[in-house]
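To whoever picks this up:

The nightly regression suite flagged Class I SAM-dependent methyltransferase as changed. Nothing in the input moved, so I suspect the structure step. Input below, exactly as stored in the fixture:
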Amino acid sequence: MSRFAERREARRAAALAVAMAALGTEVDAICAELGRRPTARDLARVAEARRRLPSLVQALRQASGYLRRDNPEAPLRHRAALGRARATIASARHLCAGLDRLLAHAPIPLMPPEVSDCLADRRGEVIGRAFRGLEQAINGPGQAEALAGAVFPYIPYPPARFTAFLQAAWRVLAVLGRAEGARFLEIGAGAGAKQLIAAQFFPAPEGIELDAGYLARAGQLAAQAPEGARLFAADATRFDRYGDYDVIYAYFPLRESAAESALEREIHRQMRHGSVALMPYVRQTFIHEIEQIAPGVVVKGYAGAELAALRRDAELIGPAVPPLPEHATLVERDRCAPARAALRRNGFTPHAL
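Regenerated output under the current build:
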């Protein structure tokens, strides 16, 4: 290759690096803003970065094309840079779509209304009735006779509503920077059917159950349980590891209100600051004495103006919760990947409905 051709190829490679760096500056600015709590973001800066992205991508595409055309051997010598440019160009379209969703997003209440006539909710009721039938079949005919006076038998809870509570907890934890890898515990899990839903939000859900019959039937779900999911024998009133979990769910575990209130006090005492308790029943117990971020949702350590601020931020977390996974091989080479990951942590992906 002539000296002129070498210099030209070097200029093309330098131009590609400059184009990638310029795009990276905007991606880093987006990441910086998305790392803040939603109400503290400079959305004008995000919008400006979004506006600039297409021209920056075009400059990257042009620089990449020039380098490829200069010499048949250039793609071999600059394989890594060209590969990263190609992956970044492909990814930028998804980043722009996610940013458009974020910039157009209006606050969404943490919990939907309990009664709705929309078609999606009616479909959810149909699916829920079918799920509850399967759940009852798995749990079996009833609880152990020795427990009948103190604890309720397993009471199915509408799966769509249960999912809404999980989503609310995820959105709160996303604001606090604790959603990824959060630990979930269900109290009185029966045979563990709800763990299959919880696993869509939290990677290794756990459940405690006192009834040996329910625990024995949990084996029917073992093949479908995610890796790390665990259902084990424990008495909720004597359990001393509630502080290990970020989200704790319970639905009518104890029959007597006084005993239930004592259990809730102990759970709340052990919980870490910022952990979320989901207790969606209407019976008046200790949990109703605590200020709630949404009906049946308590965030440990938050009340008054601080709780209201957390609610406002959580309502700005997007609807793509839990976020869909990305292809790891693309993420490793993609300069847009950090901003796309930040969008996912905030509930926005191009696939969100």
